[in-house]
Amino acid sequence: MSVHELMFEIKTEDEMMQFGSALAKVCEPGCVVFLEGELGAGKTTLVRGVLRALGHSGAVKSPTYTLVEQYDFDKKRIYHFDLYRLGSPEELEYMGGRDYFQANTISFIEWPMNAEGYLPEADLTIVIEYQGMDQRFVQINSSTTLGESMLSALKKDNGLVSASQAE
Q1: Share of the chain above pLDDT 90, in %
Q2: Please, are residues 49 and 19 in contact by the beta-carbon 8 Å criterion?
Q3: Is there a domain that residue 167 lies in?
């Protein structure tokens, strides 16, 4: 049985951090995760949860102006991209975008549609949508074998999944 999509509700910043922690446990080196949602939806908070779970204790801010932040861990490197201010997809190529996606890296990419055609295929796409002031729905879709494996592990090991699970 394969899982292509999970959906659940998040009500607080702490819950988004917990989801990030759960995601950190299943992210495999080489994976690419697209993060979609309005400004302020919680994309950077999610990445902060991932990084905290991996042991990062410093600041984690959105790389809106730098476009990418790098975080080094024992055997892997995490890149957090925010492509909101990217003027054209070609700019990612000019900054050496292809060099970021290596076998030992995990990449979280906010606003991936701004670099369409210059990014590798996403293993997971996470869409965060507002539903009222304090309620967000998170939908996670897999589009590769690696993404499917990660999504399956997330489904097993995560108490957050509650809204729906589709196959």
Answers
A1: 54
A2: yes
A3: no
